[in-house]
Design goal:
By secondary structure, chain A is mainly alpha-helical. Helices cover 69% and strands 2% of the residues of chain A. Chain B is α/β, with parallel strands linked by helices. Chain B is built from eleven helices and 13 strands. Chain B has helices at 48-55, 73-81, 99-109, 114-127, 143-154, 173-188, 200-206, 224-231, 246-253, 274-283, 298-306; strands at 8-19, 22-33, 37-41, 63-68, 84-87, 161-165, 192-197, 209-214, 217-222, 235-240, 259-262, 267-271, 290-295. Classes of the chains: A mainly alpha, B alpha/beta.
Chain lengths: 281, 312
């Protein structure tokens, strides 16, 4: 047994190299170790749940886009071109699926790892820091968001629902959206104590999905309500992706991107602080 | 021992931890030297686990001083943790992973990689006697195996200080002995051990030196033999008169042995010679239902120091 061995790259020499570097108390610069843990765990995960994240928006598209769409007819764009109803809601469904994937990962999965698996407790008793955990988990949510977005695009593009080459940017946009929701979601989850409280998340998510301009324009609302909805992240997400898939590139689009960058920065700060106070108490 | 310059691994001075109004650890002082096996002994709620968490740099202290390998855990948390192996009271193995994957991922958390880590994992599986279980799901292991895997996991970074919180609680006797044997081996190769326990026999078996804790304070410190010598007699005579008669019998036993301890179900007579004490009791005309002479243990030390028994 060579339990003490200083000749190779030991855990200690690896950790000491970080000394004095920015954020060395919060991070070992190793979120990929947390990410890799999820790659291992994927094999034993419930594939039906993973798959449902992809299938759900497709079902909505078929039911509402093609079923209801028949009754609704075409929708005019600002420049006067008419597009089918399915092309109007497809980007909204992509945005929603990016949100749902990120929220599912950062609430249910994180909650389980925090309280039942005690996975983070184990991670934080190594030389990892809370920022490694946050970034690793969020990175995982992003990959998932990316795969869902890719899958959804692979279905809707052949249907002719993407009206512009700008539509390709909808994929990175979906990742940006997933990033925003995952970084805030993980911080919120850290406050939840039981499964009952997890339902509150759904209670908030469902109306946001239905009323954020997913299926119709916000013009139907009175001005005050419109302002409220426009401040919600899902509206921002839908407007961003719709801008790309319909090729309506304007200043508002830039605003949506900035909104998500802000959400990511604030979410990460908040989540890292929460993890630190939860696990270093 | 004394000629060699002793390296201090852990130094605590006036160490405190409070949660709101509740004082979990109330100003304790201790030092742990390199290669030593140091025990924290006390009942549940004595503040042992809190102390362990502060040493393992996963809990920030509320007051006092704490140095691990000369570093302040508040400032060098991740760096200190690279030197430590931690076995928490409740296993927190990754249930979604197989046995060897648990060790691999944990090693990666420390930044270890490649061939070196793979070889280390094989070595640890052998050490924990889990080679045949390497592809088993963690959930399917027995309690003793899970514990051994947690210990193997804690060794993946070749720690200088190995911290075990109640290592054998909930294990059957056989599993406990296997585990003790593994811990002895670590001690032999010079790993510093810090162990909490509320089992006397465990403390006597594993610890070179220990502190007895109660209500967040240190009551006494020394080697197990030393503590027994200081706070108890060589032997103990346990007599039972039935729960109704214990009290009145105790009145008559006053003056027998060095000291008496009256428990609800039995009376403990502390004496250098238990057999003689028993003879004397019989001469007094008292006839205990059962009697037993045994050597003094840390249990008696604890009883003496706190007036309470250790195991709830």
């Amino acid at each position: 047994m060579s339990l003490i061995n200083a000749s190779i790259d030991t855990a200690i020499s690896i950790a000491e190299r970080r000394r004095g570097k920015l954020g060395s108390a919060l991070s070992a610069g190793r979120p990929q170790a947390v990410f890799m843990r999820n790659v291992y765990a994927l094999k034993s995960s419930n594939w039906l749940v993973v798959l449902s994240g992809f299938v759900e928006p497709v079902f909505y598209l078929l039911a509402f886009g093609y079923g209801m769409g028949k009754l609704i007819g075409n929708i005019p764009l600002p420049d006067g071109t008419l597009i089918p109803y399915a092309a109007y809601i497809a980007p909204a469904l992509l945005a929603t699926s990016a949100m749902n994937g990120a929220i599912y990962d950062s609430t249910w999965n994180v909650f389980f790892k925090m309280h039942f698996g005690k996975i983070y407790q184990a991670m934080l008793s190594t030389s990892l820091g809370p920022l490694d955990v946050a970034m690793g988990e969020i990175g995982w949510a992003l990959v998932r968001g990316f795969v869902y977005a890719l899958g959804f695009m692979a279905v809707v593009a052949p249907m002719g629902l993407i009206h512009s080459w700008w539509g390709l940017l909808a994929i990175p946009a979906a990742v940006l959206i997933a990033f925003g929701f995952a970084s805030v979601g993980m911080g919120i989850t850290s406050y939840l104590k039981n499964f009952h409280q997890m339902d509150w998340v759904n209670f908030f998510m469902l109306p946001m999905f239905l009323f954020s301009g997913t299926f119709y324009s916000l013009r139907v609302y009175p001005d005050w309500l419109r302002t409220v909805i426009e401040a919600l992240p899902l509206y921002q997400a839908i407007a961003m992706i719709r801008g790309f898939t319909l090729g309506v590139i304007d200043g508002a689009l830039f605003g949506h991107i900035v909104y998500f960058i802000m959400m990511i920065v604030l979410g990460l700060t908040f989540t890292t602080r929460r993890l630190r106070s939860l696990f270093l108490k | 021992m004394s000629e060699i310059k002793e390296e201090i691994m852990i130094r605590a001075k006036g160490l405190r931890k409070t949660y709101g109004d509740f004082v979990a650890v109330d100003g304790i002082d201790f030092e742990v030297k390199k290669g030593e096996s140091f025990g924290l002994l006390g009942p549940n709620g004595a503040g042992k686990s809190t102390t362990m968490r502060m040493i393992s740099s996963t809990s920030l202290r509320s007051g006092g001083e704490l140095e691990i390998l000369g570093k302040d855990p508040n400032l060098f948390g991740p760096e200190i943790r690279a030197h430590l192996g931690v076995v928490p009271q409740q296993d927190n193995l990754d249930r979604e992973l197989k046995v060897w994957e648990n060790l691999m991922t944990y090693g990666r958390f420390f930044g270890l990689k490649g061939k070196w880590l793979k070889a280390k994992v094989d070595e640890l599986l052998e050490f924990a006697q889990l080679e045949e279980k390497r592809n088993t799901k963690t959930d399917e292991l027995s309690g003793g195996m899970k514990r051994r895997l947690t210990i193997a996991r804690g060794l993946v970074n070749e720690p200088e200080i190995f911290m075990l919180d109640e290592p054998t609680t909930g294990l059957d006797p056989q599993a406990r002995h296997i585990l003790w044997d593994r811990l002895f081996r670590l001690k032999e190769v010079g790993v510093t051990l810090v162990i909490t326990t509320h089992y006397m026999d465990e403390a006597e078996q594993l610890c070179d030196r220990l502190v007895v804790m109660d209500k967040g304070k240190i009551m006494a410190e020394g080697s197990p033999a030393d503590l027994i010598k200081r706070y108890s007699s060589k032997e103990v005579l346990e007599v039972r008169f039935g729960s109704e008669n214990n009290k009145s019998a105790a009145e008559q036993l006053k003056g027998v042995g060095d000291r008496l301890e009256v428990l609800p179900d039995r009376i403990l007579v502390y004496s250098a010679n238990g057999e003689k004490a028993l003879e004397y009791i019989t001469k007094l005309g008292l006839h205990p239902i059962t009697s037993l002479v045994r050597r003094s243990s840390l249990e008696d030390v604890f009883l003496r120091l706190t007036g309470r028994t250790l195991v709830d």
